[in-house]
Amino acid sequence: MSSKNIKLVIEYNGTNYSGWQSQEGPHTIQDEIQRAIFKITGIEINLTAAGRTDAGVHALGQVANFHIDHRLEPERYKDAINNYLADDILIKSSCEVPPEFNSRKDAIFRRYRYLISPQKSSIYRHLRWHQPHPVIFERLQEAAGLVAGVHDFSSFCVTSSLKENNHCQIEFSRWFKFGPLLVFEIRGNRFLHGMVRSLVGSMINLALENQDKNSRNLTLPGFKNMLSSQSKDRAVFTAPPHGLYLVGVGYPKDETK
After folding, report:
1. Which domains, and CATH codes, for the chain?
2. Contact 245, 51 (CB under 8 A)
3. Catalytic one among 31, 54, 152, 254?
4. What is the pLDDT of residue 169?
5. pLDDT by residue (tens digit) across 114-156?
6. Is 54 a catalytic residue?
7. Nearest to 92 by CA among 29, 6, 11
8. Nearest C-alpha neighbor of 150 from the set 120, 179, 173
9. What is the pTM (predicted TM-score) of this model?
């Protein structure tokens, strides 16, 4: 046998987990999948993911890979792992990739979606943000248009996660209406920790139809200034995690959009 590099495409409901990344104590997606692989192979592996989603965040197309020296055929990992997972985690596909493939470093884009509903729901309460206050949709669209391009997103990142370079290239950023739902879609080459939720929270705040004159409300010029490298302002409006989805990850020669 020789070592194989296995790529997994994963879907999960993040409600009952403390995020993707393995850590002391809390229940994580990474731990659950690694435990399943150990039960199948008797080998401890380390999964590398394209994005480390936070607690409560969901995924439709998370990508992860691991190296293993085992006789099981790559395509059979999907069903084998699913046998040992709870219903809120699903391996959608498994295949062998070149030894040098790294799901995080090789990704050329990541796509996220955020769902907001003005209506309360007992069924969907963990799958979208209930935000009952009316917003001006045109203002949301205008703010989203400002996000596209290359910007320093330091103002929209968790402070402890700031890096030397906090620039991201955003290919598209836009809002849609889908029935009563407000849907935000964004795709870029990289995302900082907490960036999408901070952007969503800030855009909703500045688009509120009836703004509270006694509170600190964001304006479009203020939002634009926060996208500037010279800005020292920080986003103070962060959308909750349960409305956020990692939709997909793209790689060179990958037809997935």
Report:
1. 4-97 (3.30.70.580), 109-250 (3.30.70.660)
2. no
3. 54
4. 96
5. 999 999 999 999 999 999 999 999 999 999 999 999 999 999 9
6. yes
7. 11
8. 173
9. 0.93
